[in-house]
Amino acid sequence: MFFFRSSTQLNLTFLYRLKHTISILSSHRLFKRHHLLPSIQQAIKMSSHVPSSPRFFWGDQPEESDYYASRGVKNHQSFYQSPYGRIFTQSFHPIDRETCEHVPIKGIVFMTHGFGSDTSWLFQNTAITYATWGYAVYCADLLGHGRSDGIPGYIGDFEAVAGASLSFFLSVRKDPVYADLPAFLFGESMGGAVTLLMYLRSPPDTWTGVILSAPLLIMLEDRKPSKLRLFLFGLLFGIAETWQVMPNKGVQNLFRDPDRVRIILANPRRYTGKPRVGTMRELARMCEYVQGSFTNVTVPLLMVYGTADGIIAPVGLKMLYEKARSRDKCLCQYLDFYHSLIQGESEHNRNKILEDMMEWIDERVEMYGCGITKTVKAEEVWE
């Protein structure tokens, strides 16, 4: 059995041990001679206040139901038992802000977050926005993330990670209430690669389109894991799989807006440890696999990325655009935008990207849909 402690708990443990050590050393003549004890005690006192995270990304108030209603959506949360483990899921359906009654939807979107994130913090802002456009939106925490099963930050098998979310997405997609509506996959960063893998593992004609926001398809050279390091850890017969010992090479040009950075860092479920051995091995393997499968992509495709992105290699999107056999494909680049296009950019930049996404998805609904809209209550699908 594994037990995990939050960074707050670890800080408190460290402070307790530090106080204990100081109590032992305080009688030492060097401490008394140089009057170090009062200064150290004051530093400990100042450090003892560990700020707690707010309850939600918007703060401690209002309550969830009231907040969602003010945004014009209804949220439903649950857990889904997939063949690979239990995952946390939630949905967002558009409602009338005044009456709180459900309004007709024109399609459904299934969203996947990036590495270290989850669907319950700032990422859900994207889901809420799509719902206000008239879509039912479903999200799932990846295995090893958020409230889903698994060791935090550990992805030992990308097929299992993608398979868990895909199992849930397909269970919703096949529900009779959605069967005749257009359906889209959405993924950002590492979640973009997972989304592409889910598409490749889906039955033909399941999806109307795929939207990828700064997807991790090719790793930058300076961010690739050392093959020698992976080989040496591999000699330990799997013992080192979950070790948090891979170099953390930073997050250059990840977020632009400092206010959004503070919100993102306050996420109590965000993974903040060093990369795990198995995770980095699987990231490298998955990137190689999806690159070899680009020609199998035939679905309408929208890809967006920022030219100042310091996490992904843009050449990966260009390769996908060139090799995909989709007749309807669009690659959009945003000058000087960072990696986190929707969560981390300024409000102006974020709105620009969302406007382009809304135009694209609405056009595909009109092009490939049957002109059907229907009112669907989340409870009708979850029961």
TrEMBL record:
The record, for InterPro entries, names: AB_hydrolase_1, AB_hydrolase_fold, Hydrolase_4, MAG_DAG_Lipase
Serine aminopeptidase S33 domain ranges (all copies): 105-342
Q: Which PANTHER family match?
A: PHOSPHOLIPASE-RELATED (PTHR11614)
Q: What is the name listed in the Swiss-Prot or TrEMBL entry for this protein?
A: Alpha/beta-Hydrolases superfamily protein
Organism of origin: Rhynchospora pubera
Lineage of the organism:
Eukaryota, Viridiplantae, Streptophyta, Embryophyta, Tracheophyta
